[in-house]
Amino acid sequence: MFAIRGLEVGHNEVAHQAGVGVGTVYRRFPTKESLVEAIFEDRIDEITALGRCALNKPDSWQGLMYFVEEMCQLTARDQGLREAVFCREHGGDRVEAARVRLYPIVAKVVEAARADGYLRADISDSDLALMSIIAGAVNEFAADIRPDLWRRYVTIFLDGMRADGDQALLPVEALSADQHDAAMRSWNPRTHS
């Protein structure tokens, strides 16, 4: 339910889907944050593990591509995971701690590809987060017709991120860390669709 509808799913819907009383769900997960944490802390840590794996690839560009493709595969089809990673509306301390573990790894993946000359100098780790959100939007748009269409756009974005000597700078700078954080705090997927 969370994968399809995102973090708007409530205790009553979880209870109905699980075939238990709503009191059972509330006893185990007294708040929405505790329910979100139980589901998504480990899922965010999966993305962090992908980043660590990417850093261990012998070629930093292959590592970056691996990370982006795998991250987008997880988040394109799971609206709840996208929201847990990129929206601070839901989730408590454990989800926030998982985000804190993830972001430095993403920055290292980007910096390694940039330092090796594979990545445009004006690409930021915040660009990778937005690629994941875009992959999810493409999936929501075309999942019933082409469930893998998001891969096309991830590849287009990756090609556009690759350093190519005489590229003009991008017309708008990437979000700074503070701007990225502010966007995460204000993003509500249900009001922006």
Low-confidence stretches: none
Q: Give the amount of beta strand, in percent.
A: under 5%
Number of helices: 10
Number of strands: 0
State the separation between the terminal residues, measured CA to CA.
Answer: 18 Å
Radius of gyration over alpha carbons? Answer: 18 Å
The mean pLDDT is: 89
Output the structural class.
mainly alpha
Largest sheet: none
Topology pattern, helix = H, strand = E: HHHHHHHHHH
What fraction, in percent, of the residue positions are helical? 55-70%
Shape: elongated
List the topology elements.
Elements: H1 2-5, H2 11-18, H3 22-28, H4 32-55, H5 60-76, H6 79-86, H7 93-115, H8 125-142, H9 149-161, H10 177-186
Describe what you observe in this structure.
It is a single chain. This protein is mainly alpha-helical and about 190 residues long. It is about 70% helix and about 0% strand. The protein contains ten helices and no strands. It has helices spanning about 1-5, 10-20, 20-30, 30-55, 60-75, 80-85, 95-115, 125-140, 150-160, 175-185. Helix 4 crosses helix 6, helix 4 (about 30-55) packs parallel to helix 7 and helix 5 (about 60-75) crosses helix 8. The protein is elongated and about 60 Å long. The two termini are about 20 Å apart.
